[in-house]
Amino acid sequence: MALVHLYCMRKLIIVFLLALVSAGLYGQTAGHKFEAGVGYSPFTFFTVDGGYNAPYRCNAYFEWRYEFDKNTVDKSFDLGAKLDYKTFPISTFYDYYASYYGTRHDIALLAVGDFNLNPGGIVNPFMGLGFGPGILIEHWTSSKTEDIPEEYKPYYSYKPIPSVNSCFTVIASPRIGIELFRHLRISTSVDISLFDFRLPVCFNVGWTF
């Protein structure tokens, strides 16, 4: 089932990227903006007792936005979509006598909106929100076992290695940042996931074109 989820997500990503390329080739106007960027999350707001350890997160994203002009609605607002990918190492304990290690992949497709304090200016502070579906994929690749007491061995079981687990989720991602010279965007965001309560804080740098 996890492989089916991964296959479907890959197809969704390919279709989304093709749509963005088509918009870039045939629909470029003064209001359409594209942004590519990277980010790093060195910590989370919370930890989970008994959960896995995730020391850091790295991410890459691609975003399309439409900036409204004064002839339609308030030009301080923009709306768009964001494809976000995060990956990070994970480890966990299992039954006190085994440790498991692997990698998690978080993929999200978010509707995004921003409020710009100085739209079109050299320095433009902004705040916004992303919201949409995502998939969390855990790929466990190795394990390390400790000495198991003889009396526990008949009842002890291990997770199969390697193994892949996945689940769908809903993500809200508030953000705040600053846009410089209409191109360089520096922001901080927080991922609030329905199935992960750690709330990673991510620092992002993107280039708008």
Number of helices: 1
Note the overall shape. Answer: elongated
User: What's the count of strands?
Assistant: 9
Low-confidence stretches: 1-8, 19-29
Distance between the termini: 39 Å
From the helix content, strand content and strand pairing, which structural class follows? Answer: mainly beta
Give the SSE string: HEEEEEEEEE
Measured on Cα atoms, how large is the radius of gyration? 21 Å
List keywords for this structure.
209 residues; mainly beta
In a nutshell, what does this entry contain?
Helices cover 12% and strands 57% of the residues. The chain has one helix and nine strands, in the order αβββββββββ.
Can you describe this structure?
This protein is mainly beta and 209 residues long. Helix content is 12%, strand content 57%. The chain has an 8-stranded antiparallel beta barrel with strand order 1-2-3-4-5-6-7-9. Strand 4 (98-116) and strand 5 form a beta hairpin. Mean pLDDT is 81; it is low at 1-8 and 19-29.
What does the secondary structure layout of this molecule look like, with pairings?
Blueprint: H1 2-26, E1 32-44, E2 57-67, E3 77-94, E4 98-116, E5 123-145, E6 163-180, E7 184-190, E8 192-193, E9 200-208
